[in-house]
């Protein structure tokens, strides 16, 4: 459990970021690329990356990030500098400018948790050429794994942000709305976390950063001296609501073509949904939804792929075009 202690002025200085942090997304994305279950909502991204991405860049990036940002209780903060809020170029420059003493300390802590290979020694020593090579490799990885999906990520993040802020109405409401990821017990925000620690804001406020590729639990900087930041997994299921709302102007004509229920099913699929999720979204029975998705699939408007005990429905380019989303 991470306990974040608020004091005078901290609530007023708490904010939700308007976009993802490119370096945090890189750290989380390599985990999604290698785990057995990356979640149904990430399956379209995962399939496209594996089908169309530069395999050499992906393999090299995953190997690099698996060493520098391993799954576990610690990875160096220098990989995700606060400058990530300003965009990728600023973030990579911040990495190249990391003080040698900090690199030495953070690599020592990493080595205590998981021994690092020989190729990391120049990085730990602050070698300029090694840091340049690292950031160039990160830029290549980002260009293949993250950048092509920017519009999808931006839409999901904006939907999550507007939902949380709109529902909340105030900072305390925002913090309460983070349940179950976080539990607001004034003046302490309890965050579901991998291990037990306390963070005192001391008037600095808190920056909440949504992440497309983070799953299950939020993550914070290991160093309490850094600007207080919590990166949290966004709520993917809210995205379909926005897509449905944006397509309502086309719903009349589409309903005349497909029928009201089938046009609603097509719109509710959003970025991807299972039969159970569609049933919940539309207030219909799974058997009824299944009949309609079969018709839509046979018409070339949906694709359906089995994922374990569930099936994932996605709109085809024709289905999106009918909704006016292309």
UniProtKB/TrEMBL annotation:
<dbReference type="Pfam" id="PF12840">
    <property type="entry name" value="HTH_20"/>
</dbReference>
<keyword id="KW-0805">Transcription regulation</keyword>
<dbReference type="InterPro" id="IPR001845">
    <property type="entry name" value="HTH_ArsR_DNA-bd_dom"/>
</dbReference>
<dbReference type="InterPro" id="IPR036388">
    <property type="entry name" value="WH-like_DNA-bd_sf"/>
</dbReference>
<feature type="domain" description="HTH arsR-type">
    <location>
        <begin position="252"/>
        <end position="324"/>
    </location>
</feature>
<keyword id="KW-0804">Transcription</keyword>
<dbReference type="InterPro" id="IPR051011">
    <property type="entry name" value="Metal_resp_trans_reg"/>
</dbReference>
<protein>
    <submittedName>
        <fullName>Helix-turn-helix transcriptional regulator</fullName>
    </submittedName>
</protein>
<dbReference type="InterPro" id="IPR011991">
    <property type="entry name" value="ArsR-like_HTH"/>
</dbReference>
<dbReference type="InterPro" id="IPR036390">
    <property type="entry name" value="WH_DNA-bd_sf"/>
</dbReference>
<keyword id="KW-0238">DNA-binding</keyword>
